[in-house]
Amino acid sequence: MTERSSTQSSIFERLVRQGGEARARLSAPMAPPAAGPRVGDLWILPSGTKLDDQTDTPIEWAVLEVEPQGALLLIPVDTCPMQGRADVLADDARVLRCGQGCWIDPAAFASGFRSGSLTREQVQAARQRRRDLRDGSAAAPLVVLETEKDPEYRQLLGRIEAIRLELEDAFREPTADSAFASKTAKATDSSREARRWFPAVAAASLLAAASIIVIHQKSVIDDLERTTAAPIPNPPVVWLEPGNDRGSREVGAVAEGTPYIVLLLIPEVTGHVQQSYSLKIFAHGDDRPLWNGEMAGGALPELFVLLPTRHFPAGDYHLQLTAREGDLERSAGTYELRILQSP
Amino acid sequence: MEIIRNLIFTEHVRQLVRGDVSAQELSPSWEKLRSALVSELRARSLFSVSPTCVGILGSPRWTRNAIDELTADCYIFVFLKRLSSLNAQLGREKANIEGLIFRNVRYFLHELQRKHDPLGFRSYLALRSAICRAVEEGTLVVVQGDPEVRTNTAVAPPIDSGPLTRATKRSPSELRATIWGWADETMPDLVTARGRALDPVIEILRARILELSRDGVAELRFGEVSRHFQARVRHLWSASWPRETPVAEVDHSLGSLAEALRPGFALEEREAFHQLVACVSEAVEADPTTPRTQAYLHRLWTFLWSHCLEDRGNPPSRRQLSETLKIPRARIRDLYSSLQRKVRHCLSLSRPSNGDLE
Fold first, then answer.
1. Chain A residues whose beta carbon lies within 8 Å of the beta carbon of residue B136
2. What is d(CA B344, CA B358) in angstroms, rounded to the nearest whole number?
3. Measured between beta carbons, which residues in chain A are less than 8 angstroms from residue B194?
4. Which chain B residues are Cβ-neighbours of A154 within 8 angstroms?
5. Which of A80, A197, B15, B300 sits at 20 to 30 Å (Cα–Cα) from A267?
6. CB proximity list for B159: less than 8 A, separation 6 or greater
7. What is the spatial distance between Cα B98 and Cα A178, in angstroms, rounded to a whole number?
8. Quick one: CA torsion of B274, B276, B277, B278, rounded to 10 degrees?
9. CB-defined contacts A:B, below 8 A
10. To probe the interface with A, which of B37, B71, B80, B82 has the most A CB atoms within 10 Å?
């Protein structure tokens, strides 16, 4: 045993005292609540722990919403201090990754472990951040933008996303609960794949000067390349302006086999061309984006978007366009879209 | 016995949760944490520079006391602030949390360096981002070490990327000269660019790394490349500021602000200084001005507080500031006034009055 210096002895004394204080702050062991998971609960879910063990990225899950039918909106929580736009610092150590929410079946909690809880304010802050992300109004100071560029942060988010997908995959199929099934059917059957898309690769050359939404997943890219290689005869076209004061807004009677709807989005006027845009598309009443893509700003005032019909069945959709210029972001318009039932 | 020794952190968390830990019980995990910290300091090329780079003031070199101070801060970050979360992980009978503690040591130093060593952090971030991009796009592959690109990582072009243009191996001095050239090419933008403006710098580095890897250097070790690159960036930045500011050009207003900011060595002063830096940085971020002015403010503020930490004497003249920080000279007075107001406001939050800045 080495002799401790006086500096080290005084440090030890301080740390031992602070250790006692930290222990005193620990909450009592929590029993699973009889009524099941509640809003604000933190849980450790065994189905999402295989990857976190392998990667030393332990995740807790915070419950943000509980639907009467049972489906739960969860967001991952970890203790890495790096924070991007989508993240909210809950306490001294826990960070809520609000951009990685997922709706899952309550069966996921059967063998879960309740590990703590968030305050009402923390839950509200997380919900607000999700709304801000959805509206494109989440603050993006320079330090946050730099964090988002940091490979350490990107690798962390990559690991968290893999764990989230592991959990989603384990509970992909809804239970026999019919209400839950109907609630999630749209996302599960038609758009689940789309929800995982991330901006990366340009899709097609519909119009030479057009800006086309870009998406990521290889199978979808292959699909796009295949279908856009051939002409698309008379695709349905929808013209959308912000706020829906003008524009066609509805597309009706999409013929069987029509692969795409063409959207013409008119961004809010700024007097000059923006460098780039991001577009999110939500099913009506759902705060999970079905589509999350990037577009380069072009010479034309309008933006062209190809919407694959197999991922967007008949229904109401909400679109949010965000403009980026340098480090600045601003909302460039919100739009409502209704796709009518095929005859 | 070996297993028990390897699970020192895990056992320590259990002890912390069970009850009060004595100084003797603290010792094994302290030593292991200290050793992990020193390894990470070396990995980030921080062990060869002043401890101020991670916020430890009052010691120009890494003495035993300086390392102890850092280890204490790390212990609080890793164990005490995260005890609830660590306890939750052990609560589900996770076999051990050793890997998690090591990862948190990395996060601890990462955040400290980001806050206290903008120069070193920028160099590390830009170079690592460049290599990660090349790995992501497949123009380089990790052939050895951590796939997440760390000090022990070696990268090389993929086997099917075609013949190397030159098969000769570079000597260490040739390699160093090449890497120094990257720093020469990317400074001062590497330090002064913010947000997306850093992208072109990363792109230049990516291109240079690929050129080098195709030019007969079969494997590039991130640790080695990073060490040379950071050393050159620090040298260039330091050399860009003259040792002496001509008397006629001494900016007394900047000098008085720098003097008021300069921290003492006591723990309380150190913490007060870091709080002040954080407070003013937040105020700069929140300043409702144009992005360009905000970038100027940030540049000037980062320069001022790092200047104070390094205790370089009088700040440079406005001309020198303008040339090196790429801020129009005519703007510096207003920017300075804005910073002065922010510093005064932040000081007023922590103490009743301050007359030093008038």
1. none
2. 10
3. 142, 145-146, 327
4. 132
5. A197
6. none
7. 44
8. 90
9. 149
10. B80
> In chain B, what percentage of residues exceed pLDDT 90?
21
Of B128, B219, B224, give the one whose Cα is nearest residue B173.
B224
Residue A219: which residues within 8 A CB-CB, separation 6 or more?
A: A193
Under a CB-based contact definition with an 8 Å cutoff, are residues A16 and B73 in contact?
A: no
pLDDT greater than 60 at residue B352: no
Q: Using CA atoms, how far apart are residues B345 and B279, in angstroms rounded to an integer?
A: 9
Global confidence as pTM = 0.65
Q: What is the spatial distance between Cα A66 and Cα B3, in angstroms, rounded to a whole number?
A: 43
Instruction: Give the up-direction half-sphere exposure of residue A220: CA atoms within 13 A in the CB hemisphere.
Output: 26
* Cα B297 from Cα B321, distance rounded (Å): 12
pLDDT, position A15: 92
Q: pLDDT of A292-337, one tens digit each?
A: 777 776 655 677 777 777 777 777 888 888 887 766 777 888 888 8
Q: Tell me if B87 and A53 make a contact (CB, 8 A cut-off).
A: no
Residue ranges in chain A modelled with pLDDT below 70: 1-4, 27-34, 47-55, 140-142, 172-236, 242-259, 269-275, 297-301, 326-327, 340-343
> How far is residue B17 from each of residues A60, B12, B27, B80, measured CA to CA in Å?
19, 9, 17, 10
- Give the C-alpha distances (Å, rounded to integers) separating A183 from B6, B270, B298: 49, 55, 48
